[in-house]
Structure formats: structure tokens, C-alpha cells
Amino acid sequence: MTLPTYPAISTDTGVTRQVLSHSPEIMVVSFRFESGASGRLHSHPHVQSTYVSRGRFRFFRDGEAHELKAGDSLVIPSNTEHGCQCLETGELIDCFTPRRDDFL
Q: Which residue range or ranges hold the Cupin type-2 domain (predicted)?
């Protein structure tokens, strides 16, 4: 069985997103950030977990700042306002449940 390959797409200046795998219940996505790039504040109905595979980030979750480095992770509850700023070029591996159909 051959799995589909999803292209990396630019979502903002210095940010790319690539869907790695998904099913209706869960989605795994890679976000790559250049130093200084940011993920704007937003919210969505999906529960999200983020894992810092490399780099350093400042996350904002419900008005609180959290600094994360490679090996750290954070869970973002459904409908919680969040975003991030990349402090050192890196990559986030995010899981969403259920799947983010808007990413397909």
C-alpha cells in the first residue's frame, strides 16, 4: 500500500506546514519555523499537542507564555487561544484530534 505524500506549503513568512499522516480521528503535522517567525494567535475546536523536535519557541496559551526547547511538549485544549514565536530555527511536530480537514 502506498501512502499519499503531502507537500510542504508556506503558511506565513518563515513558516511551512506539512501533513505527515492522518485518519479521521488524528492528524500528525510538521511545522518548520525560521528564527523570528511566528504562528499567529488563533483557536480551533481540535485538541492539539505540540512537540519541539528542534529549536526553541515561546508559546502563548490562554494569555500565558511558555518557553519550550527541543524535547519539550505542550497540550493545547480545544478552543484555547494560542500561538508561538520561534526563538531559534526549529520544527514542531503537532498532533490534532480530530483531524484538521482544513489542512488537506
A: 31-89
Which residues 6+ apart lie within 8 Å of 84 measured at CB?
Answer: 33, 38, 39, 57, 58, 59, 60, 92
User: 40: which residues sit within 8 A by CB, 6+ positions away?
Assistant: 12, 83
Q: Are the beta carbons of 96 and 88 closer than 8 angstroms?
A: no
User: What's the gap between Cα 97 and its chain centre?
Assistant: 13
**CATH number of the domain residue 72 falls in:** 2.60.120.10
Q: Range of 40's domain? A: 9-103
pTM, whole model, 2 decimals?
Answer: 0.94
Local structure of 62: helix, strand or coil: coil
- What confidence tens digit (pLDDT) does each residue in 20-37 have? 999 999 999 999 999 999
